Amino acid sequence: MIYICIPIENAEDTIGLLLWKIRVVMAEFGRDYEILVLDDASTDRTREVLEGYRSRLPLRILRNDESIGESAGLELLLREAVVSTKYPKRDSAVTLRSDFSDSPDAIVPLVRALEGGSDIVAGTLKTEKIKSSFLVNISRFLMEVLLGKVFYSAPVSNPLCGPRAYRLIVLKKAFNASNKRPLVASRGWLANLELLSVLAPHARKVSEMAIDSSCQSGFYTSRFSVIGTFSSIRRVRQEVVWEN
After folding, report:
1. Mapping DSSP to helix (H, G, I), strand (E, B) and coil, where does residue 175 land?
2. Model confidence at 162: pLDDT above 70
3. Residue of 242, 241, 211 lying closest to 94 (CA atoms)
4. Which of 102-116, 120-134, 226-240 shows the lowest mean pLDDT across its residues?
5. How far apart are CA 231 and CA 22, in angstroms?
6. How far, CA to CA in Å, does 84 sit from each of 26, 152, 157, 172, 207?
7. Exposure string (b/e) for 36-72, b if CB count within 10 Å is 16 or more?
8. Mean pLDDT across the stretch 58-63?
9. SS in 3 state form for 43-108?
10. Rounded to whole angstroms, how far apart are CA atoms 71 and 80?
11. pLDDT for the residue numbered 134
């Protein structure tokens, strides 16, 4: 079983098209899957759009009355996948963003890499394909510089980007070791790095794969907060230590 995890907030313009694209990709792939969506206190028509797809897709919808943010929402969905699986060594979770900055086309190569023996697969961007705004590009560059060794010593070339695929046994071990504490305290791109640092010690093999749409502007503009992203860099520099 592949659990496709998507935290969303006010995504009425993109979530329907994203779900339909996932349906097309998975129909061709021929694997069992379930889409886990967290509606994180949306105030637009996101709820109505999701309900319209419930009968046409293997879709499970979780809802929050108060927003907890994309990173915490993603962790909630990953925990839901671990609770749901009967075969954590075989089953997997794939993470996508709701704004098309992560393409559903990435699901197939990421899962095939897991089937080939990896426990964690990180989608990394093809630099020649970047079409992000100047603000996003300069912020990404500054993050790399400020993170320093934490960035350049990671087991993948760009630990800030998504999408990702995880074997569920890795998540299960990390959640058990956390004693119910959150795995991630950061938000935005930095949360991807922090989550990888927590999960990597439980993985036998971490690999990466070039994905056309990873960390790009995609079909729609991704949400990005400069203040929210940079405020946690100092803490992450102190706490993250990659195992060799």
Report:
1. helix
2. yes
3. 211
4. 120-134
5. 34
6. 20, 35, 32, 11, 25
7. bbbbbebeeebeebbeebeeebebbbeebeeeebbbb
8. 97
9. CCCHHHHHHHHCCCCCEEEEEECCCCCHHHHHHHHHHHHHHHCCCCCCCEEEECCCCCCCCHHHHH
10. 14
11. 65
The residues spanned by each domain of the chain are 2-239
Amino acid, single-letter form, for residue 217: S
Map tokens 């907030």 to a residue: 9
Residue type for 152, please?
Y
Tokens of 152: 């350049």
Task: Give the residue from 137, 124, 117, 92 showing the smallest Cα distance to 2.
Answer: 92
CATH superfamily name and code, 2-239: Spore Coat Polysaccharide Biosynthesis Protein SpsA; Chain A (3.90.550.10)
CA torsion sign, 119 to 113 to 71 to 193? positive
Statement: residue 218 has pLDDT above 50: no
Closest C-alpha among 219, 217, 218, 154 to residue 190: 154
Q: What is the pTM for the complete model shown?
A: 0.89
Side-chain-side CA neighbours of residue 24 (13 Å): 10
Q: Answer left, alpha or beta for residue 10, where phi above 0 means left and psi between -120 and 50 means alpha.
A: left
What is the number of other CB atoms lying within 10 angstroms of the CB of residue 79? Answer: 17
68 φ, ψ (degrees, to nearest 5): -115, -5
228-240 in b/e form (b: 16+ CB < 10 A) is ebeebbeebeeeb
